[in-house]
């Protein structure tokens, strides 16, 4: 929005061109900084261990091998288990999909109520939910562990889904509430006069309007839950761990030689779903991030 | 009955979420606060004993390290991410044709799990085969970069990885802020012959104060909650050198079997978060109503 | 004739704040009731209460002879047009208009034929497949009207429907609404803050201020005989001149004396109104002050005035003078030769005068 103004040189045009080049150089350098780890991960995952030991960190693989990927997916060891990342990847899928769906749905209804069907106390409830978004989860870990045990779902995937839904509805409600609050209340009034009730208005008028915020919320929740580690490591047991926990176990397993190529392949596998979503729907991802931080 | 139902549907639908928040957020905080006042070890006890756990906590050298680390890590992480994010945002704001692609590149780390980030940087920064070996391979035999295994430097290695992950996000926030400044004000300034640098420093950046505040809140919040990154990158080591309150709490709760310490450290964490967040949220909510 | 809308002793409060106080209003079948007042006076809240969109704290609302006080909006047999039009953004114009019928389970054939009727009546046939976002402001307004018309209700409610239109379109739509009212013979309740809309459309006007009814009457009554200073000032543009004056009894009638700086007081004699308190506010509309010689009548009295300002407005020219420290506007013919700084003989028509008490602001005559 602001052009670089000409530097006070003999030839202002030449000065401006030089400045432009400098600008591009700096931006490109930063791009390298951000891309380097991904590049290193990919190249390392395609090398053999021998090549890793003998070659440079940033060198391209001489002999491309997918061995590390195979190992990472199906036979890498974490502790005594040697099943690779595969079962844990599916654990993550099995817990993320329902947790995202349920928390988004609840958030949509809550947001609709708070934004459009205000009643005495609704704002207080919203404030309480909003503050709940900010607590460090450490403060609920201990009682939640006991509660899950009490409910008989300790160490299970349904238990993890429950935890993610509970601590996800604050954010999903916030997203939908902030979106629905921009819709004029007259719309609900008009629909009421037209004879529509609470659910009819939600379904026929608000749902069709909600695609963008739905995308934002689903992507936000998906990224949060897929990438979660704290709940995963605290509330799962062998066999029900999500992929992030398994990845950490594989990488930090103390037995055997360090297989860096396998570690990198495993890391990419664990990162793939969220990276993919970012690549295809980055717009909504960014919107979620900024909406999640600029609240109210 | 039907009319009563119709009138109260909104309340009925919000009630479960409200109850859930009451119990699982506020109730649980109360539980943790209670237990932090007891002599709980492996199992929770419920006889209030006063502040003994907090006394133990503040006397523990490991907690001391964790709080120090949080301070160093938090300060550096926030300052560097903000500066880098602001710089990138301003540079990207100069009508760059490839802005979309660059933005995508700068921001993608935010989509990654901290565990992935930690794993990648652990590999990159490992002294045997990572950057150190690479630079030595170029002929600089004396080059040393062994932060991850140096107790004095390991916390800075975590800062590097954390900044890498979050600075693109700060950039996105700031870029949105720069774009929201009234175009007419900038035109007026340019007509007045004010140089670009001054337009940024005197007009645009001061008008972005709320965005700085948001970015600060988010980063501070991230810093205090930081757990995954430390676990993946250094495991809290070498020794306890990179312990943060979050890893301390986790260790006490799940490997040391010291629930009292876990609860009291969690309460301290929450106090720190709330000391930062509550005034902010309060002013936000007030501003919305006013 | 039984009233189509009957509001009795209506109270509305949010917590301790009283929004509406003891409202008693009725609308006859085929009447056009306009609720007018400044923003925040409670007129829109009152309309929402009539619609059932807001509950009331006391009193009752009857529509078509039925007590609707606790009936939900959908069962009140009303239709409503909103300021923002409130068109359903994801539905086509046709679906916007038929949504209400669909919700009520009206069959497809009836819906289609009613849609066609309304579309023809409002000349929006070519817009039926469009989305609201593809329409101009005036077109949206028509669709909103269509949605109301298709209901064929007992009572139409309009909540400032023209305030989002530009000036020219507003005048056009005003005429159209008036024509619609005439053609349908329906009962309408219309909220506006624009006193010209109120005057042109209404068969009955309710002036509200701070949740209290100030006056109810025909447009002519409200305009000619405002009940208090507020109504006098609010209705009419330019506003009624309100001039502090002293009165005293004289043989020929009431002597009215108006102070002015730098000159002898203006003295007028009112032969019709007696029994006035010593201190009054005298109210006279700008059109009741003319240039001498252009207005005749028993009660017309001429006064020489110093002209401060001249505002030609096309058909008329307004001149402003200063009496009792107040600006006094007179509406003159456009060919007047009045010049700022010069003096002019102005004819005050005391046949049209209003008096208000200086303390309470209530009308005295």
SSE layout and pairing:
The complex is a heterotrimer of chains A (296), B (290) and C (365).
Chain A: H1 12-45, H2 49-54, H3 67-74, H4 86-116, H5 122-133, H6 138-151, H7 157-180, H8 186-193, H9 198-206, H10 211-227, H11 230-235, H12 243-251, H13 260-293
Helix pairs in contact in A: 1-13, 3-13, 4-7, 4-10, 4-12, 5-7, 7-10, 10-13, 12-13
Chain B: H1 2-35, H2 52-59, H3 61-92, H4 99-107, H5 114-124, H6 131-137, H7 154-179, H8 183-191, H9 196-207, H10 209-225, H11 228-233, H12 245-255, H13 259-289
Helix pairs in contact in B: 1-13, 2-13, 3-7, 3-10, 4-7, 5-7, 7-10, 8-9, 10-13, 12-13
Chain C: E1 5-14, E2 17-27, E3 32-36, H1 43-51, E4 58-63, E5 66-67, E6 78-81, H2 93-103, H3 108-122, H4 137-149, E7 155-159, H5 167-184, E8 187-192, H6 195-201, E9 204-209, E10 212-217, H7 219-224, H8 229-234, E11 241-250, E12 253-258, E13 266-270, E14 279-284, E15 289-291, E16 300-312, E17 316-323, E18 326-333, E19 343-349, E20 354-357
Parallel strand pairs in C: 3-8, 3-9, 6-7, 7-8
Antiparallel strand pairs in C: 1-2, 1-4, 4-5, 9-10, 11-12, 11-14, 12-13, 14-20, 15-19, 16-17, 16-19, 17-18
In short:
Chain B has a single domain, classed as MetI-like (MetI-like fold, Orthogonal Bundle), CATH 1.10.3720. Chain B is 73% helix and 0% strand. Chain B has helices at 2-35, 52-59, 61-92, 99-107, 114-124, 131-137, 154-179, 183-191, 196-207, 209-225, 228-233, 245-255, 259-289.
């Amino acid at each position: 929005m602001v052009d670089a103004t000409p530097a006070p040189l003999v030839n202002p045009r030449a000065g401006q061109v030089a400045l432009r080049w400098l600008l591009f150089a700096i931006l490109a350098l930063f791009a390298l900084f951000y891309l380097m780890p991904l590049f290193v991960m990919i190249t390392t995952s395609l090398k053999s261990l021998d090549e890793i030991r003998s070659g440079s960190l940033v060198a391209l693989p001489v002999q491309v091998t997918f061995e590390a990927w195979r190992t990472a997916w199906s036979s890498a060891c974490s502790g005594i288990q040697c099943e690779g990342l595969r079962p844990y990847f599916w654990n993550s899928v099995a817990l993320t999909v329902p947790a995202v769906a349920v928390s988004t749905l609840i958030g949509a209804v809550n947001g609709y109520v708070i934004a459009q069907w205000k009643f005495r106390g609704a704002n207080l409830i919203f404030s309480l939910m909003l503050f709940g978004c900010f607590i460090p989860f450490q403060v609920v870990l201990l009682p939640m562990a006991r509660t899950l045990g009490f409910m008989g779902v300790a160490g299970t995937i349904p238990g993890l889904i429950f935890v993610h839904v509970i601590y996800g509805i604050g954010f999903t409600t916030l997203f939908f509430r902030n979106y629905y609050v921009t819709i004029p209340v007259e719309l609900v009034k008009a629909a009421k006069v037209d004879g529509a009730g609470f659910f009819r208005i939600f379904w026929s008028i608000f749902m069709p309007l909600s695609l963008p915020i739905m995308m934002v919320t689903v992507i936000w929740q998906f990224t949060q839950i897929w990438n979660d580690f704290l709940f995963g490591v605290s509330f799962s047991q062998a066999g029900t761990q999500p992929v992030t926990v398994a990845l950490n176990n594989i990488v930090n397993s103390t037995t055997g030689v360090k297989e860096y190529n396998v570690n990198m392949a495993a890391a990419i596998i664990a990162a793939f779903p969220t990276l993919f979503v970012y690549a295809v729907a980055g717009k909504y991802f960014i919107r979620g991030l900024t909406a999640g931080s600029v609240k109210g | 009955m039907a009319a009563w139902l119709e009138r109260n549907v909104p309340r009925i639908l919000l009630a479960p979420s409200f109850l859930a928040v009451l119990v699982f957020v506020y109730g649980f905080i109360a539980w943790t606060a209670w237990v932090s006042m007891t002599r709980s070890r492996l199992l929770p006890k419920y006889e209030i004993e006063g502040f003994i756990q907090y006394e133990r906590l503040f006397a523990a050298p490991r907690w001391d390290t964790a709080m120090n680390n949080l301070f160093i890590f938090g300060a550096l992480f926030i300052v560097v991410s903000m500066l880098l994010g602001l710089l990138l945002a301003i540079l990207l704001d100069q009508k760059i044709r490839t802005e979309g692609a660059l933005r995508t590149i700068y921001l993608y780390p935010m989509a990654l799990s901290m565990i992935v980030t930690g794993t990648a940087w652990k590999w990159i920064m490992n002294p045997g085969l990572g950057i150190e070996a690479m630079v030595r391979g170029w002929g600089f035999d004396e080059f040393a970069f062994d932060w991850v295994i140096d107790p004095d430097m390991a916390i800075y290695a975590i800062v590097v990885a954390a900044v890498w992950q979050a600075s693109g996000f700060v950039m996105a926030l700031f870029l949105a802020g720069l774009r929201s400044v009234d175009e007419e004000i900038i035109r007026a300034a340019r007509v007045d012959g004010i140089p670009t640098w001054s337009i940024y420093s005197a007009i645009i950046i001061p008008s972005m104060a709320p965005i700085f505040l948001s970015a600060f809140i988010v980063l501070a919040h991230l810093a205090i909650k930081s757990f995954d990154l430390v676990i993946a990158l250094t495991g809290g080591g070498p020794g306890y050198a990179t312990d943060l309150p979050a890893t301390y709490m986790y260790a006490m709760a799940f490997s040391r079997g010291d629930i009292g310490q876990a609860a009291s450290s969690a309460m301290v964490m929450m106090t720190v978060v709330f000391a930062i967040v509550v005034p902010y949220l309060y002013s936000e909510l007030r501003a919305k109503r006013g | 004739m039984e009233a189509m809308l009957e509001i009795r002793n209506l109270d509305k409060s949010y917590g301790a704040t009283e929004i509406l106080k003891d409202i008693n209003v009725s609308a006859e079948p085929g009447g056009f009731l306009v609720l007018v007042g400044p923003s925040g006076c409670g007129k829109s809240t009152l309309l929402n209460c009539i619609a059932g969109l807001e509950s009331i704290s006391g009193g009752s609302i009857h529509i078509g002879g039925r007590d609707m006080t606790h009936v939900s909006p959908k069962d009140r047999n009303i239709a409503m047009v909103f300021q923002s039009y409130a068109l359903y953004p994801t539905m086509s114009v046709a679906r916007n208009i038929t949504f209400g019928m669909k919700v009520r389970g009206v069959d497809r054939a009836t819906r289609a034929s009613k849609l066609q009727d309304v579309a023809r009546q409002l000349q929006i046939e070519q817009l039926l497949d469009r989305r609201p976002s593809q329409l101009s402001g005036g077109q949206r307004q028509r669709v909103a009207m269509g949605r109301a018309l298709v209901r064929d209700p007992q009572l139409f409610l309009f909540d400032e429907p023209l305030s989002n239109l530009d000036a020219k379109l507003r005048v056009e739509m005003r005429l159209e609404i008036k024509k619609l009212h005439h053609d349908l013979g329906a009962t309408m309740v219309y909220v506006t803050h624009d006193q010209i809309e109120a005057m042109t459309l209404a068969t009955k006007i309710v002036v509200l201020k701070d949740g209290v009814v100030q006056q109810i009457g025909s447009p002519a009554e409200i305009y000619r005989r405002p009940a208090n200073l507020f109504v006098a000032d609010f209705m009419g543009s330019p506003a009624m001149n309100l001039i502090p004056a002293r009165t005293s009894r004289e043989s020929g009638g009431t002597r009215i004396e108006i102070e002015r700086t730098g000159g002898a007081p203006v003295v007028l004699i009112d032969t019709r109104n007696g029994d006035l308190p010593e201190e009054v506010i005298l109210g006279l509309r700008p059109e009741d002050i003319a240039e001498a010689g252009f207005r005749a009548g028993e009660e017309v009295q001429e006064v020489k005035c110093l002209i401060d300002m001249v505002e030609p407005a096309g058909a008329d020219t307004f001149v402003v003078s200063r009496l009792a420290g107040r600006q006094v506007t007179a509406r003159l013919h456009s060919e007047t030769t009045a010049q700022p700084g010069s003096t002019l003989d102005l004819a005050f028509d005391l046949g049209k005068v209003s008096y208000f008490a200086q303390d309470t602001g209530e009308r005295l005559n």
